[in-house]
Structure formats: C-alpha cells, structure tokens
Amino acid sequence: MAENPFEAYGLDPTAGPEAITAKLRELAEATDDEQERAAIREAWEALTLHPSRRLDLALSAHPETREAPGRRPRPLRLGAPPPLTLADLVPLPSLVERLGLTTVVTGDEPLERDPILTGSSRRREP
User: Fold this and answer.
1) Nearest to 9 by CA among 66, 25, 55, 18
2) Average pLDDT over all residues of the chain
3) Is residue 111 within 8 Å of residue 118, measured between CB atoms?
C-alpha cells in the first residue's frame, strides 16, 4: 500500500470506520480483479483495525481545496438596487422648490440648453 488509501479510493479523511467500511465494501463488490480486492482489503485493515494508522493516513491526506466541478456560481445578492437611469438623477420638484429655482429640470433638455448648466436658472429672492 504505497499510496494513501484516502486519496486512492476517494475516502473522506474525517470518516469513521463504518463509513470507510461501507465505501470500501462497495468498491470491492464492484471489481472482479482479485489483486484490486486484496489492495482494498489491505486498505480496509489499515484504516479500520488500527486507529493510530488511520489518524496518520488521514493527517497525510491532501484536502480538496477546489470547489466541486459543475457547481453553480453564487447567486447575485437579492434586493440589490437596479442601476440608476437619467430620470433617477433629476431633482425632485420639492428639492427645486426648496432651492428656490424657477426652472424645473426634466432631464429631457440637451445639455447645451440645460438651464442649470447654462446659468439661466434664477433663484427667487426671499
């Protein structure tokens, strides 16, 4: 048994003897090769009959650090605000009134004729 049995047979290093036995039994029943069955039996003995050996092998197994293949990307946050449009940037009439402007900008004017940008918007005198 040169290779770590956790890696060789796709076993979870945190699994207990019962889970290891079940997985290795499935593998042994699925193969017709006697050499492979003998290797599975040897791995089972090392992992279930000798707890200290199982711990050493579990600690030397390399954990999987990649995400499982085929996993969907994370969903976008629910409740994220929609992107702003030009109409969202137009000052509200209440704000225009509070600022004392006489012209309401609707956002439909081209920038060349925009009363605020051209300075033609006047403040009301208090």
Assistant:
1) 25
2) 79
3) no
Give me the residue label for tokens 């300075």: 119
Q: Which H, E and C letters describe 6-53, residue by residue?
A: HHHCCCCCCCCHHHHHHHHHHHHHHCCCHHHHHHHHHHHHHHHCCHHH
* pLDDT over 60 at 121, yes or no: no
Does 53 lie in the same domain as 13? yes
37 within some domain:
yes
pLDDT of residue 72: 73
- Decide: pTM greater than 0.70: no
Q: What is the pLDDT of residue 60?
A: 86
Structural domain for 104, as ranges: 86-118
Q: Name which of 51, 49, 41, 52 is nearest 5 in CA terms.
A: 41
* Within-domain flag for 9: yes
Give the single-character DSSP code of 59: H
